[in-house]
Amino acid sequence: MAVKICGLTRAEQAVAIAQMGVSALGFICVPSSPRYIPPPAIAAITQQLPETVLTVAVVANPTLEALDSLIHRSNIKAVQLHGHESPAFCQQVQQHYPHVQIIKALRVKSKDTLESIPHYIPYVTRLLLDAYHPQQLGGTGTPFDWRLLQHLSIACPWWLAGGITPENCRQAIAQTHPHGIDLSSGVEVSPGIKDLGRVAALLKALGVDANPTPHS
Ligand SMILES: O=C(O)c1ccccc1N[C@@H]1O[C@H](COP(=O)(O)O)[C@@H](O)[C@H]1O
C-alpha cells in the first residue's frame, strides 16, 4: 500500500516523514492554496530526501511552459494534475517528460466523473480519486461517497484521497481497495504544518514499518 503525505512546506518535517516509511511526499504548487510552496523551496527540500521517496508537485491547469519551469526548478519525480486537465493534455505531458510520473487527479462529484477514467489511462502513471468541492481544488478534508466506487474496476494503478485520517484509513481501504492513499489535512496541525504524531498513528494503523536507518 503506497502512502502519500501531501502539503509539506518544511524540510525537517519532510525528512522526518520520509524516515517514518511513507512512499511519496507532495508539494502544493497552486498559488491560491494555503499550502503553497515555491519551486526553489521544493528543490531545497527534495535534495535532502532519500531517492526511494516519490516527490510530487501538485499543480492545477498549468501550461506546458509553466510545467517545464516547475520540473526544472523543483527537482521532483512526479506531477499531480489536480485541475481540469484533459486526456490530450496528459498525453502532451507524457510526450514532453517521459521520465516524469503523471498522476491525474479526478475530483469525484458523481458517477459521471468516473466515466472519464478510461480516456486517461493510456497517458498517466496512476489516477488519484479525490473529493469534489465547489470552492476548493483539494485539501478539503472531506471524503467523497466511497460507495460510488463499488463494482468499478479501474484498469490502472490508482490512489484514494479526500478526508482520509488515521481513524478512517482502514475503513477507506477495506471499502475501496486502492493501490495507495493520499492525505493532507487529516495529518495536519494547520495548513502546511504536519502533525508527526498523527502521521505515526496513520502508519501504525496501516502496519507500515519505519524505513531502516541509512537516511537517518
Ligand atoms: O492541499 C491543497 O491545498 C491542495 C490545493 C490544490 C490542489 C490540491 C490540493 N491538495 C490535494 O488534496 C488531496 C486531499 O486532501 P485532504 O486529505 O482531503 O486534505 C490531496 O491529494 C492533496 O494533494
What does this structure look like?
The protein is an alpha/beta fold and 216 residues long. The protein has a single domain (2-205), classed as TIM Barrel (Alpha-Beta Barrel). It is 30% helix and 22% strand. It contains eight helices and ten strands. It has helices at 11-19, 39-46, 64-74, 87-96, 111-114, 117-120, 169-176, 196-206; strands spanning 2-6, 24-28, 54-59, 78-81, 101-108, 126-131, 158-161, 180-183, 188-190, 193-194. It has an eight-stranded parallel barrel, surrounded by four helices. A hairpin with a 2-residue loop joins strand 9 (188-190) and strand 10. The longest helix has 11 residues, at 64-74. The radius of gyration is 16 Å and the shape is globular. It starts with a strand and ends in a 10-residue tail after the last helix. The relative contact order is 0.19. Mean pLDDT is 95; it is low at 212-216. The chain binds the ligand O=C(O)c1ccccc1N[C@@H]1O[C@H](COP(=O)(O)O)[C@@H](O)[C@H]1O. Ligand LGQLAAA5 binds at residues 6-7, 26, 28, 30, 33, 35, 58, 60, 82, 128, 130, 137-141, 161-164, 182-186.
Q: Termini distance?
A: 23 Å
Lateral arrangement of strands in the main beta sheet: 1-2-3-4-5-6-7-8
Please provide the ordered H/E string of secondary-structure elements.
EHEHEHEHEHHEEHEEEH
**Uncertain runs:** 212-216
Detail the topology: elements first, then pairings.
Layout: E1 2-6, H1 11-19, E2 24-28, H2 39-46, E3 54-59, H3 64-74, E4 78-81, H4 87-96, E5 101-108, H5 111-114, H6 117-120, E6 126-131, E7 158-161, H7 169-176, E8 180-183, E9 188-190, E10 193-194, H8 196-206
Parallel strand pairs: 1-2, 1-8, 2-3, 3-4, 4-5, 5-6, 6-7, 7-8
Antiparallel strand pairs: 9-10
Helix pairs in contact: 2-3
The ligand O=C(O)c1ccccc1N[C@@H]1O[C@H](COP(=O)(O)O)[C@@H](O)[C@H]1O binds at residues 6-7, 26, 28, 30, 33, 35, 58, 60, 82, 128, 130, 137-141, 161-164, 182-186.
Keywords: Amino-acid biosynthesis, Aromatic amino acid biosynthesis, Isomerase, Tryptophan biosynthesis
Domain N-(5'phosphoribosyl) anthranilate isomerase (PRAI): 3-204
Pfam families: PRAI
